[in-house]
Amino acid sequence: MNNTDTITSKQLIFIIIGAQIGIGIFSLPRLVSAEAHQDAWLAVLLGALVPLLILIIIERLGRRMPESSFVGMNHLLFGRWLGSAMVFLFVVYAVFFQSTVVRLFTEITIAFLLPRTPAPVVTLMVVLGAVYIINKGARVVARVNEVLFWIILPLLFIVMAPLVNADYTEILPVGEAGVKAVAQGVLSSTNAYAGMEVLLVFYFLVKSKGEIIKAGILGLGWTTLAYLIVTLVCLLVWGSETIQVINWPMLTLLKTIKFPVLERPELFLLAVWMGVGIRPTMNMGFAAAYSLSEVLHVERDKYFHRVVIFIAVLIYILALLPPNLIVAFKWAQYAGYTSLLAGLLYPLLMLVIAVIRGKEAPSG
Amino acid sequence: MAKKGFLIIIIFLLLHLCGCWDSQDLEELSFPLAAAYDVHSPGSADPSDPPAQPGNKLVDLTTLVPNLAPKTKLPVNVETHSGVTIADARQRRGLTDADTYVTGMNQIIIIGEELARCGLNPYMDSLLRDPTIPDSMYFSVAAGRGEDILKTPIKNYSNMGNFLVALFKGIQQRTFIPATQLGEFYRYQSTGKNPVAPILERKGERVIISGVAVFKKDRMVKKLTVEEGHDLVLLRGLKGRSYLPFSKKASETYHRGAVLVRNSRKVQYNQNQQGHNFIITVKLEGSLEEHSHQAPITEEHLQEIEKTIEQQVKTQCETFINMMQEEIKVDCIDISKYALAKTRRALEKEIDNPEFIQNANIQVKVKVHLENTGESR
Q1: Which of B184, B154, B164, B158 lies closest to B36 in space, CA to CA?
Q2: What are phi and psi of B239, to 5 degrees?
Q3: CA atoms of B242 and A231, how far apart (whole Å)
Q4: Phi and psi, residue B196, nearest 5°
Q5: A339 near B CB under 8 A
Q6: CA A273: distance to chain centroid?
Q7: How many helices (H) and strands (E) in chain A?
Q8: How far apart are alpha carbons A97 and A311 in whole angstroms?
Q9: Does B126 contact A at CB distance below 8 Å?
Q10: DSSP state of B270
Q11: Given phi > 0 = left and psi -120 to 50 = alpha, else beta, which region is B299?
């Protein structure tokens, strides 16, 4: 393990937040309220249980093999060939998921900020920025996540400003949507909550393993708070019915207010969010590149950048494939469902096999 | 070698940050301040009318653009273009106007009366889809054509657009008339809700607010007078501040005066065998501003004034509610949402039917609290 790849548990908090909060937050209220209606905020709150479960499973798994890397764990549990195949599948998932994130990021940027700039150019800018940071190692990735996190806090206050137009009856009666609708809403939120699975890779890189659960819970707590605020404000202002016709309710929400100097707060938020929005690509991109370089036995110091560029090219090509925004949203929905496979079922399978076979990494 | 490669990447990034595709020269831009949408039937005498399907109306887009170029004769440019749709009218403007429109600075949208009665959503779809258009712009209806409002000359302001922005900006602090924004117009089309908007009218060489338009979703169904608009605002709970005159005959003396009050409302809802029951409590708080009685005001006298205003406002509100239930048949006072808040699933299919509001039992209570009598007693 390279020195530039060790991170602290505090940095892990920001990595988890960064892996989850990206572009999904803009359309989250619409997706969840399509199923859960006025109880969408309940579904968002309950949706946090899924990544919490993932956190616990991965932590338990990592505790059994604390010195193993993600690739090492797979080799130990599935054997060399099958284990490598599982790692490849994980890399494929990460690339696919991030391509949808990058594509939606591009769409929002073009719609609101740069309508004449071709999509391949915007996508290239996003991917190149992520490539540069990933190449510097996990520690730099973590530090960038930390810096960008502190930008989100004031933005959340701006998001709450439209509450002057809030109507509390829009979220009443509480619970009337029903258990089934709320459960479907929870499923719709998987895309936004996806990202906890990066812990499969970053677990090994954390110095103090005993603080990982605490860090994970704190990170998830912040993510849930941000999602809950955005969903509640959108519901209170727009109502679950009106939200359905808006692609990105969080952004359109800010068009309803203006401040004395800042007349278009949504453009200000979006300009700042340009940096925040590439964090999932950075984090998952690093996880994919790191795992791939390890399984291919690539020399970290000399050739890691080639693996990073290879991953970036794949993300770039996939991001440009959807012919329009509607297809891009559909891909993002599928990516959300596959995150349940990669984030929940896959570590669970590993844990079950580890328990059954009594596998633990040899010490020393 | 890798470091040089990354340096090249960084420089490439920086070059593209200049926005090669999206950079625009400020002098080639126009910033429309106000717009008006109207309709007319094709086949009129105007030879520049675009071809249209028989039976379909053509839309007229009038834009008011302050002329920012120095030393120009006209401070403002008001132009009307017709098209099959609003977007079609915009592209026709490109044939006569050298500048690129920046729609993000638009602050007023005025809808012509005929268009408002047709149903607005098909015509206003472009406003919802365009990310540059702010939802905070003021929305109003014109008595007649919106074009006439924008083309009215104005003396005390640089242009009609600035006058209208100033008119709407503080209107709820001056009188009980709603100031509706575009985002609000969209929000109030959901189940159980209906929007309202102020009506602008050209009277001679002036533009005034002459009433309030009531919509059933996106279609205007009733024009209210200014006085009816006051009652609507009180019952709807739109926060405002206004002078309220009162009068009472006591013995042979006629007492007249006015109070300056701000309003709020509370709505209680319950459903029983009689049906849907609403109790609207209108609360008015403020101060005594004017009184014809020349002696110092006692506590009893102040309470009597409060009771007089309570009775007066209650009567006006009850008259308005009768009109709403008998004539308008649309919930324009925004009370249906309280019923939805209790049983959304059961009511959402029927709540927008006229029968719901027609058969609802609506009671009004008014509470007035005058905090002081001003500088004199």
Answers
A1: B164
A2: -70, 130
A3: 36
A4: -130, 160
A5: no
A6: 14
A7: 18, 0
A8: 12
A9: no
A10: E
A11: alpha
pLDDT, tens only, A138-162: 999 999 999 999 987 788 889 999 9
Smallest CA–CA distance, residue B117 to chain A, in Å, is 22
Mean pLDDT of B356-374: 93
Q: Do B21 and A112 touch (CB under 8 A)?
A: no
**Tokens representing A237?**
């202002």
The whole-angstrom separation of Cα B181 and Cα A18 is 36
Peptide bond before residue A173 is cis, with ω within 30 degrees of 0: yes
| Residue (of B170, B169, B118, B172) closest to B141 by Cα position | B118
Query: A240-265: per-residue pLDDT in tens?
Result: 999 999 999 999 999 988 888 878 88
> DSSP letter at B327?
I
pLDDT for res B259: 93
Which residues does chain B have within 8 Å of residue A238's beta carbon, measured at their own beta carbons?
187
| Whether A161 contacts A255, CB under 8 Å | no
Q: Report which of B369, B368, B344, B364 is spatially closest to residue B268, judged by C-alpha positions.
A: B364
Q: What are the Cα distances from residue B172, in Å, to A215, B135, B164?
A: 50, 19, 14
Asked if the Cβ–Cβ distance from B184 to A165 is below 8 Å, we say yes
Length of chain A in terms of residues written: 364
Q: Pick from A197, A210, A201: which is nearest to A295 by CA? A: A201
* Torsion region of A324: left, alpha or beta (phi above 0 gives left; psi -120 to 50 gives alpha): beta
Q: What pLDDT, in 10s, does the model give residues B107-156?
A: 999 999 999 999 999 998 988 888 889 999 999 999 999 999 999 998 88
Kindly report whether the peptide bond that precedes residue A260 is cis, defined as omega within 30 degrees of 0.
no
Residues of A in contact with B136 (CB under 8 A): 255-258
Alpha-carbon torsion (B174, B177, B183, B188), positive or negative: positive
Neighbour tally for B2: CB within 10 Å: 12
Between A119-134 and A80-112, two packed helices, what is the crossing angle to 10 degrees? 130
**Residue at A121: amino acid letter:** V
- A128 contact B CB<8A: yes
Contact residues for B291 (Cβ-Cβ < 8 A; gap 6+): B255, B256, B257, B297, B305
User: What is the arithmetic mean of pLDDT over A203-227?
Assistant: 94
- The torsion of the CA quartet B204, B207, B209, B215, rounded to 10 degrees, works out to 100
Query: By three-state DSSP, how is residue A135 classified?
Result: coil
Distance, CA of A356 to CA of B4 (rounded, Å)? 51
Residue A20 tokens, joined: 């989850």
Site of tokens 């109003």: B140
Mean pLDDT of A301-313: 92
Helix (H) or strand (E) holding B281: strand B275-291
Inter-chain residue contact B135 with A256, CB threshold 8 Å: yes
Beta strand ranges found along chain A (DSSP E): none
Task: Identify each DSSP E strand in B172-274 by its residue range.
Answer: 180-181, 196-203, 206-216, 219-224, 241-250, 253-272
B308 is written with which tokens?
């007089």
Tell me if chain B has a CB within 8 Å of the CB of A98: no
